[in-house]
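Researcher: Please translate sequence to structure tokens.
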Amino acid sequence: FVAATVLSITHVNSLKVEPECSIPGVRSAGHLGVLEQRGTHLLIFLTIGISVLLTPLLSHIPMPVLFGVFLYMGVSSLKGLQFFDRILIMFMPVKYQPDYMFLRQVPLRRVHLFTCIQLTCLSVLWLIKSFRYTSILFPLMLVVMIGVRKALDCIFTRRELKILDDVMPEITKRAVADDLHHLEDGNGAG
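Model: Translation complete:
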């Protein structure tokens, strides 16, 4: 699962294995896993390669249509990304915030601080990339971001960074926490 492109996020979301049935009124446990295979990656990149040969035909597609497709793909892939979820909760009253695992384990002020630092870094990278004279520094600034991440060890505890900067999807962390909770309940009763 590579989050470098919209294509990869959308591709992995399309390969999710969902439960076949659901009970009305009972919240679904989420997806069961990801169907791993290599065929669609091969087909995706073959069609991208073939599209170079089809340029005369593709030039008849209006640009607003293409922009709309890419906008839809980009916006639909944001769902489930912790960074985007943390940005959204910055603008929500506490009582309307979803029950995210990171909100259970890290104080809200610390979550907002981490999100603001990430937004600042993203803004700096965007500004550097946007100007012709500074865009040459973009690869160097990516290396600087490694130093910024290391400097976060001075601001946040190791536990907070593990929770806020984890690559594990929210649904997987929730399932593990629920399993541990059920095990604790079972051991306490016996």
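Researcher: Any highlights?
Model: The mean pLDDT is 80.
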